[in-house]
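Ops channel
N.P.: pipeline sanity check, posting one input/output pair.
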C-alpha cells in the first residue's frame, strides 16, 4: 500500500541502506559519478512501501510482511525486499531483517539475513552477506561491517570469479576461490586486502598466504603482476616471462615483461600506451645485450662453418603506432616498426610482432614504417602517405644450417613517398547515373637492383646485374568512371558503364642498355561496356529454394599500351576470384591493365534449405579478342640472359583461367568452402579450401588446404607452395579435453609447426599444458621443441590485455 510521505530525515536513513549496498559491491571504488537512477515516478524525497503492516510507534517506524511475499520498498531506483523494515527516528538506526534483498539501479544485488545502517555515521552491518559483482564474481561473508566511508570489512569471507551455480541453478563448487579470515575493501587504495588467505582449485586448497591483495574487481585497470608466460625452448632453455602492469592514469599505462631464460641472456619487453582526447599511441620495444645463437654448422661436424662473434651486442626492436581522429573530415596516424636482427622475434618468441596498424599493412614477415593522413566526406576521399619497409623474409633457405639463411634485402624493397589517392563524386546523378572522378600519384625509390617480376624481359640486363642500382619510378594517374543501373520488369539488371584513364610515368636508372637516362612514358585507355545479371528464384518442396544468377560483362577498350619500360610495382600478384573477375581493372594496382574487346561470363547457383543450410557454386571465365603478352611475368629463377615468362595472373591468353568457387553449409556449426583457378589444359594452378565445424558446446575443428602451382621454373625464388593446416579441440570428460594444431608443408613432406596439449576449460579458467615443435625455415636455430603452458583467468584480475600466441 502507498504510505504517507515521510520526512526527509526518514528517507535519508533508508537511502543509506542502498548506498551501503553499492559500496559493499565495490561501485564506489570506480571513483566516478554513478549513473542517474531510472525515473520510477517518485521524487527525491518519496518512498513507496508495500507491506502487510506499516505504522509508527513512538520514534519507531515499522513495515512488515511475515508470510507470503516479502515487504517491498522502492526509493530513487533502489528496491528492497525484506520481512521486516524498521527505522528509529531518535538513534537514526535503519534495519532490515529476514530474507533481505537490495537491488541497486544498475542491477547489483545484495543478500543478507540482517542489514542495518546508522544515519550520519555512514557505518553499518550485514549478517550472512552475499553479493554478485558487476564482472560476474561473487563475494560472501559471515558478517560485513562498514567501518567508515572508505573502509569495508568482511569476516570469514569467500571470493570467487567463477559461477557458483550450474546451468540448472544447483550449487556447485567454484573452480577458483579465495577463502580468508578477514577481507578489507579499502576504497582509498582501490584494493581488496586478505588476511590468512587460502586459494582453492575445485575446492582443494593449493596455496596459503598470510597476507594477500589484489585490485578491486570493479577497477578497470590497476597496477600489478599479470599472468606469466612459461615455456621451454631447445635454445633458450626454460623461459619465464613475467608481465607487470603499471597504471599511470586512466589514460596511460606501462607494461614491463622481462623474459628470464636459463640458456641465453634475459630479454626485456616494454609497452607504453597513452590515450588522448582524439586518438591513442602504443609503443612496444624490447632490448637485450646478448650473443647471437643459432645453427651455423653446415656439415654437422660440431664446428660453425661461419664463425660467429663471441662478444655480446645490443639487440632490440621497436613497434609503435598511433591514430588520431579529431572532429572534422581529417584523421592521421603513423607506424614505426624496426628490429636490429631479422630473427630476433623468432629467437625470443616475441608475441604478435606482425599486427596490422595504420593505413597500409606490411605483408607476412615485413615491418612497415609510415605516416599518413586521410580526409573523408560523404562524396570525397583523399589520402597522403609515405612508408618504408623492412623485410624479415628468407629469400634462400639453408636447410643444413638455418642460421646461414639468406634474407631478402631491405634495399630491394621500395621507399614510397608520397603516395596520394583521391576520389570525388558529384552530389546529383549525371545522365541518370553515378560519376566518379579519381586520381593517384606515387614515387618509389630503390637502392638495390631488382629484376623479375618488377622488370619485364625487354629491360632485364643480359647478364646478372651485380652492383647495379635500383629503378626509381614516379607516376600520376587520372580517371573518370560513369555507371548507371536499369532494372527491367522481368528482373534483368543492366548496368552500362564508361571508363577513361590517363597515366604519366617518369622512370630513372633502367638497367637495359640505352635506357639508363630518365624515361618519360604516357599512356591512356577508354572503355565502354555493359554488365548484365538476371537472378532467378524457384521454390522447391519443403520450403527450400533454388537461386540461379547468370551474369555477363561486355567491354570494348582502346588497345592497352603496356610499355616495357614501366616497372611493375603494384600489380605483381592477382587473386582472381568471383569478385575481381567482373572488374574493369582486375589487377590490384595501376601498373598493369587490360584493353581490347573482352567478354566475361559466369553463373552462380545456390540451394537454400533453411536460413542456415545452403550450398552454392560459381563458375566463370573471361575471353579477349587476342592474347596480351605484356601481362606475362618473368620467373625470378630464370637463367641470366634467358628470361622465362609465365601467366601468373591467368589473364594473358585469349581465354582466362576458369574460376570455380563453392561453399556448403549442411547445418548450423559446420561450414566449408573452396575455390580454384584452372587453365585450359585442366591443370589446377591455384586452389584453397577449408572445412570448419563446431559440435557440442565447445568442441571445434578446422582443416585448411592451400596450393599454388603457377610458377613453372624451379629455384630458390620460386614461390610455389602447398600446405595443410589442421586444428581443433575435443572435450572428453567434463571440462577436460585435448587440443592440437599442425601445419604441414606438402612439398617438403614436413610438419613445420605443431602443438598438442591437455586442456581444462570452464566458465572462468582455461589451462593448457602441452608440447610444441617449430620446424619453420626462418628459425636460425633449426627445429625447436618444448613444453608450453597457457593460463587464462576470466574476470579475476582482468586488465584488458590479452596475451595470446603470436604469429610468425
Amino acid at each position: 500500500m502507498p504510505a504517507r510521505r515521510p520526512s526527509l530525515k526518514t528517507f535519508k536513513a533508508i537511502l543509506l541502506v542502498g548506498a551501503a549496498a553499492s559500496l559493499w559491491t565495490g561501485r564506489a571504488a570506480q571513483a566516478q559519478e554513478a549513473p542517474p537512477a531510472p525515473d520510477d515516478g517518485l521524487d527525491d524525497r518519496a518512498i513507496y512501501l508495500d507491506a502487510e503492516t506499516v505504522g509508527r510507534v513512538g520514534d519507531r517506524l515499522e513495515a512488515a510482511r511475515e508470510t507470503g511475499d516479502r515487504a517491498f520498498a522502492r526509493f530513487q531506483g533502489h528496491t528492497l525486499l525484506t520481512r521486516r523494515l524498521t527505522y528509529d527516528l531518535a538513534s537514526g538506526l535503519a534495519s532490515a531483517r529476514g530474507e533481505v534483498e537490495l537491488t541497486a539501479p544498475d542491477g547489483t544485488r545484495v543478500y543478507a539475513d540482517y542489514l542495518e545502517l546508522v544515519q550520519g555515521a555512514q557505518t553499518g552491518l550485514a549478517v550472512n552477506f552475499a553479493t554478485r559483482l558487476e564482472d560476474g564474481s561473487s563475494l560472501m561473508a559471515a558478517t560485513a561491517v562498514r567501518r567508515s566511508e572508505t573502509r569495508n570489512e568482511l569476516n570469514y569471507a569467500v571470493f570467487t570469479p567463477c559461477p557458483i551455480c550450474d546451468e540448472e541453478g544447483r550449487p556447485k563448487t567454484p573452480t577458483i576461490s579465495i577463502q580468508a579470515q578477514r577481507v578489507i575493501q579499502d576504497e582509498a587504495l582501490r584494493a581488496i586486502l586478505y588476511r590468512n588467505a587460502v586459494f582453492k582449485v575445485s575446492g582443494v586448497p593449493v596455496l596459503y598466504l598470510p597476507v594477500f591483495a589484489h585490485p578491486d574487481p570493479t577497477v578497470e585497470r590497476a597496477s600489478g603482476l599479470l599472468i606469466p608466460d612459461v615455456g621451454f625452448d631447445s635454445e633458450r632453455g626454460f623461459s619465464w616471462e613475467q608481465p607487470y602492469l603499471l597504471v599511470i592514469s586512466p589514460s596511460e599505462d606501462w607494461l614491463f615483461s622481462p623474459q628470464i631464460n636459463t640458456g641465453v641472456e634475459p630479454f626485456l619487453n616494454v609497452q607504453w600506451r597513452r590515450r588522448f582526447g582524439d586518438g591513442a599511441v602504443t609503443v612496444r620495444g624490447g632490448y637485450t645485450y646478448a650473443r647471437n645463437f643459432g645453427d651455423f654448422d653446415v656439415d654437422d661436424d660440431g664446428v660453425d662453418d661461419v664463425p660467429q662473434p663471441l662478444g655480446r651486442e645490443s639487440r632490440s626492436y621497436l613497434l609503435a603506432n598511433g591514430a588520431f581522429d579529431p572532429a572534422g573530415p581529417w584523421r592521421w596516424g603513423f607506424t614505426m616498426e624496426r628490429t636490429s636482427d631479422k630473427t630476433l622475434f623468432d629467437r625470443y618468441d616475441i608475441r604478435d610482432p606482425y599486427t596490422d596498424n595504420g593505413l597500409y599493412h606490411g605483408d607476412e614477415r615485413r615491418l612497415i614504417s609510415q605516416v599518413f593522413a586521410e580526409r573523408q566526406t560523404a562524396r570525397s576521399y583523399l589520402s597522403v602517405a609515405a612508408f618504408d619497409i623492412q623485410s624479415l623474409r628468407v629469400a634462400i633457405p639453408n636447410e643444413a644450417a638455418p642460421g646461414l639463411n639468406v634474407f631478402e634485402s631491405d634495399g630491394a624493397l621500395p621507399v614510397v613517398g608520397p603516395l596520394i589517392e583521391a576520389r570525388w563524386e558529384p552530389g546529383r546523378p549525371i545522365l541518370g547515373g553515378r560519376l566518379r572522378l579519381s586520381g593517384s600519384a606515387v614515387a618509389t625509390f630503390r637502392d638495390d637492383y631488382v629484376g623479375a617480376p618488377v622488370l619485364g624481359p625487354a629491360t632485364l640486363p643480359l647478364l646478372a646485374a651485380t652492383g647495379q642500382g635500383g629503378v626509381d619510378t614516379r607516376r600520376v594517374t587520372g580517371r573518370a568512371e560513369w555507371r548507371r543501373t536499369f532494372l527491367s520488369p522481368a528482373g534483368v539488371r543492366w548496368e552500362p558503364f564508361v571508363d577513361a584513364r590517363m597515366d604519366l610515368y617518369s622512370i630513372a636508372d633502367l638497367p637495359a642498355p640505352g635506357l639508363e637516362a630518365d624515361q618519360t612514358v604516357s599512356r591512356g585507355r577508354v572503355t565502354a561496356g555493359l554488365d548484365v545479371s538476371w537472378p532467378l528464384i524457384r521454390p522447391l518442396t519443403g520450403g527450400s529454394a533454388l537461386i540461379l544468377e547468370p551474369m555477363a560483362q561486355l567491354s570494348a577498350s582502346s588497345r592497352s599500351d603496356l610499355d616495357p619500360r614501366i616497372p611493375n610495382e603494384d600489380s605483381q600478384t592477382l587473386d582472381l576470384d568471383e569478385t575481381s573477375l567482373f572488374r574493369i581493372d582486375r589487377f590490384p594496382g595501376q601498373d598493369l591493365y587490360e584493353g581490347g574487346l573482352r567478354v566475361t561470363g559466369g553463373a552462380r547457383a545456390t540451394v537454400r534449405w533453411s536460413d542456415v543450410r545452403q550450398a552454392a557454386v560459381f563458375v566463370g571465365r573471361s575471353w579477349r579478342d587476342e592474347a596480351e603478352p605484356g601481362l606475362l611475368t618473368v620467373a625470378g629463377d630464370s637463367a641470366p640472359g634467358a628470361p622465362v615468362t609465365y601467366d601468373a595472373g591467368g589473364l594473358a591468353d585469349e581465354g582466362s583461367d576458369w574460376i570455380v568457387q563453392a561453399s556448403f553449409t549442411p547445418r548450423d556449426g559446420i561450414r566449408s568452402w573452396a575455390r580454384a583457378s584452372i587453365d585450359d589444359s585442366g591443370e589446377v594452378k591455384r586452389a584453397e579450401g577449408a572445412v570448419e565445424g563446431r559440435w557440442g558446446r565447445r568442441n571445434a575443428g578446422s582443416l585448411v588446404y592451400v596450393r599454388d602451382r603457377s610458377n613453372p621454373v624451379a629455384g630458390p625464388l620460386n614461390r610455389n607452395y602447398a600446405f595443410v593446416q589442421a586444428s581443433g579441440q575435443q572435450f572428453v570428460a567434463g571440462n577436460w579435453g585435448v587440443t592440437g594444431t599442425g601445419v604441414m608443408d606438402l612439398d617438403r613432406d614436413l610438419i613445420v609447426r605443431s602443438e598438442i596439449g591437455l586442456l581444462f576449460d570452464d566458465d572462468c579458467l582455461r589451462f593448457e599444458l602441452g608440447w610444441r615443435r617449430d620446424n619453420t625455415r626462418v628459425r636460425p636455430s633449426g627445429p625447436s621443441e618444448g613444453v608450453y603452458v597457457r593460463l587464462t583467468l576470466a574476470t579475476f584480475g582482468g586488465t584488458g590485455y590479452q596475451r595470446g600466441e603470436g604469429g610468425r
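N.P.: looks fine end to end. The longest strand covers residues 493-508.
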